[in-house]
Design goal:
The protein is mostly beta strands. The protein has one domain. Helix content is 0%, strand content 33%. The protein is built from no helices and six strands. The strands form three sheets. Strands 1-2 form a two-stranded antiparallel ribbon. It has a two-stranded antiparallel sheet with strand order 3-6. A hairpin with a 6-residue loop joins strand 1 and strand 2 (19-22). It starts with 8 loop residues before the first strand and ends with a strand.
Length: 72
Amino acid sequence: MGDLAGEGLTLPAGGVNRVVRIGAPPSPDGPQEFEQSYVDIAPLAGTAPYWIRVVQVDQSMAWSSPVYVTRG
């Protein structure tokens, strides 16, 4: 149980980007707003899609539609 404190535990689940995350649920009285910026440190030339995934307090998930970025 001590491994679950803080960030929790992330285990590989086979396949690309497939993991199992185990930990305490987020606090229901946590922040209502969030702001983030992202810089792709290894961008590919051409057009690439990016998505945003949100995990809610009740562990429901939502994904944005892709945002396409074109680089020369």
